[in-house]
Design a protein that fits this description.
heterodimer, A: alpha+beta, Cytochrome-c3 Hydrogenase, chain B, 2 domains, 5-stranded antiparallel beta sheet, 4-stranded mixed beta sheet, 15 helices, 40% helix, B: alpha/beta, Rossmann fold, 36% helix
């Protein structure tokens, strides 16, 4: 009897995904698919709106990473107002945006590690779901839980100070920003009462990294082999090859580290990247045109970034990067769960960058906006916490947006997430008759490594259970489990 | 009187998705009201969603009221007490529930404020920054309910009991 297993999260509004796993009569995995609903309607929604509204409008798209959309839109509109592509802003404008961005990175990565991934490591993939979260950490390692909560808080406060407010921030505007950092704000972040200061955040980021490394040493085979598969990798890099999460050129490498996209100007991304539509998925599948649909897909996100860059421009993270790269002899790392390792190195880098920026007097400057000759079209790229984010706008003579194209990080990772699910399903479900909580969580762990944002645009509070349904070859339901 | 304690009213949701912005709209109404009716000890906050750092924020309060939109089958609004609960974290979720926040607060900081949830019924969830007419009416009713409680003799626990009669 062939079987179809469906893992289906349900959200309040939109942005949901489900996993279907097909088995043959012998219990072999024949096909796996991850289906995610994407908001293509949003691109139509912004059409006709004045271009300067875009950095605020796009925050309606996602309540999880609004800062990334805010900044990517602002970068695209920098081009349209003639302020150049990333390098044309005033020092205060660029550095305030960078501070906002690294604050977002820091809090987003901290949330993922302490709330979503560390519990799997601490309690096991088949551990009690009731404690496989930060509450479980609070009970067993209270210091670690406090670190997670306070790292999130620190990052959120950085965002509030730079974006102006928690919801629908207005900090970034076309050509620059609308506020600088006050001396009081700067001093609070640099010298605030323990633990809410930059030095402590760096120290805690190192602690989190050490925690993962200890786990890795004890579980090396498992970590190395979980959903391992070769892939291409794509990200922004600084022009000198450094990790730069805010701006740079677009680089991709293949599984051996050969350049397959060689530091191109992302204004021309359309010449190099295309999106494939597949009948069974609402979400497109991006790929490099030069390689083609079958083999041109790529990973984005922490793992990809540390595969494309040559070095990290902050000392503590660079030291960790060297250790990390040595594990794969300098070659690209294709181990799915090493994404967590890479994410923690980036967390440390973000903390170092925050301190470096806070010590830069340019943040206190008053020259906030650059203007130039207006253009009709602009592309903004940014490395969002979960990967490369593309915003592309074209305006008409009335300054209204007439075309918008967004490729979000989760879309870029569509094919790799599908492949990860396939690898895990084969490893844990082949020949099995009963779907256990551990099996379900293993599939989730594979997807979660990419930190996908499936609940874009609205919080889906308590509305995203997993449902596993087992069907026979005639699609009759024979079993269903809900987490 | 409840309002003499350290109180936080915390709305959440995405105001860019129509009625999902009921929580934020509630806070805006409270801000306007407080200009004419100052209440020492009462703080307001709002965000897109609740998250783990909110456990630290509520640890410093005696009473917390979370305000959220809901699609649940209620008439206009519903006021209930939040009990701590370590409910399973949902698949890839980047947000947590009020009961999760309270439980995390209790386990991390060994305190737990009296916590309530004001659910306001919403109907439309498109990419707009305005509430539907029906949701606006529900917001007004929910707002009046809370104002009455802030002014009145009922404790919030008594209000919950009254709501559930």
């Amino acid at each position: 009897m062939s079987k179809k297993i469906t893992i289906e999260p349900v959200t309040r509004v939109e942005g949901h995904g489900k996993v279907t796993i097909h088995m043959d009569n012998q219990g072999n995995i024949q096909q796996t698919r991850l289906h995610i609903v994407e908001f293509r309607g949003f691109e139509r929604f912004v059409q006709g709106r004045p271009y300067w509204e875009a950095p605020v409008l796009v925050q309606r798209l996602c309540g999880i990473c609004p800062v990334s959309h805010h900044l990517a839109a602002a970068k695209a509109l920098d081009v349209i107002v003639g302020a150049g592509t990333g390098e044309g802003l005033t020092p205060t404008g660029e550095k305030m945006r960078r501070l906002m961005h690294y604050g977002q990175f820091f809090q987003s990565h901290a949330l993922h590690f302490f709330h979503l991934s560390a519990p799997d490591f601490l309690f096991g993939f088949d551990g009690d779901p009731a404690i496989r979260n930060i509450i479980g950490i609070a009970l067993t390692k209270p210091d670690l839980a406090v670190q997670g909560v306070m790292m999130r808080k620190f990052g959120q406060e950085i965002i509030r100070a730079t974006a102006g407010k928690k919801i629908h921030g207005t900090g970034a505007i076309p050509g620059g920003i609308n506020k600088n950092l006050s001396i009081e704000e700067r001093d609070e972040f640099l010298k605030g009462a323990d633990p809410l200061n930059a030095d402590k955040m760096i120290s805690w980021a190192q602690d989190a990294l050490d925690f993962f490394k200890s786990y890795y040493v004890a579980n090396k085979d498992f970590i190395d082999n979980f959903a391992y598969f070769p892939s291409n990798h794509l990200s922004l890099v600084r022009k000198d090859g450094a990790l730069d999460l805010y701006h740079g050129v677009l680089r991709a490498v293949d599984t051996d580290g050969n350049r397959i996209l060689n530091d191109i100007d992302y204004q021309e991304y359309n010449n190099y990247i295309e999106e494939e539509v597949r009948s069974w998925s609402y979400m497109k599948f991006p790929y490099l045109k030069s390689i083609g649909k079958d083999n041109g897909w790529y990973r984005v996100g922490p793992l990809a970034r540390l595969n494309t860059v040559d070095f990290i421009p902050t000392p503590l993270a660079q030291k960790e990067f060297e250790i990390y790269k040595a594990m794969t002899n300098g070659k690209p790392n294709n181990h799915c769960l090493h994404t967590h390792y890479a994410r923690l190195i980036e967390t440390l880098h973000a903390a170092e960058m925050i301190r470096e920026l806070l010590n830069d007097p340019d943040l206190l400057g008053n020259d906030l906006v650059t203007k130039g000759t207006k253009q009709k079209e602009g592309v903004g790229l940014i490395e969002a916490p979960r990967g490369t984010l593309f915003h592309h706008y074209r305006i008409n003579d009335n300054d209204q947006i007439e075309m918008a194209n967004l490729i979000v990080s989760t879309t870029n990772n569509n094919e790799p997430m599908n492949r990860s699910v396939n690898h895990v399903a084969k490893a844990v479900m082949t020949g099995k008759e009963v779907i256990t909580e551990g099996m379900m969580n293993s599939v989730e762990v594979a997807i979660r490594a990419y930190d996908p944002c499936l609940s874009c645009a609205t919080h889906a509070l308590g509305k995203m259970p997993l449902e596993v349904s087992l069907f026979d070859e005639d699609n009759n339901l024979i079993d269903r489990k809900r987490s | 009187m409840p309002h003499r304690k350290r109180m936080l009213i915390y709305g959440y949701g995405n105001p860019g998705r129509q009625d999902d912005g009921l929580g934020a709209a509630f806070i805006r109404k409270m801000e306007a009201w407080l200009k004419d009716h100052p209440m020492p000890g009462l703080n307001l906050d709002c965000n897109y969603q609740l998250n783990i750092e909110d456990a630290e924020i509520i640890a410093h309060k005696d009473i917390v009221i979370f305000v959220d939109a809901t699609v649940e089958d209620i008439e206009h609004f519903h006021f209930s007490k939040v009990e701590p609960s370590a409910a399973k974290v949902e698949f890839t979720m980047h947000a947590v529930s009020p009961s999760f926040v309270v439980d995390l607060c209790r386990k991390m900081f060994h305190v737990a404020p009296e916590t309530y949830l004001l659910h306001i019924k919403g109907y439309e969830w498109d990419f707009k920054e305005s509430l539907s007419e029906a949701a606006s009416e529900n917001l007004e009713m929910a707002f009046r309910f809370i104002i009455d409680k802030l002014h009145g003799q009922l404790t919030f626990d008594e209000a919950v009991l009254q709501e559930n009669k």
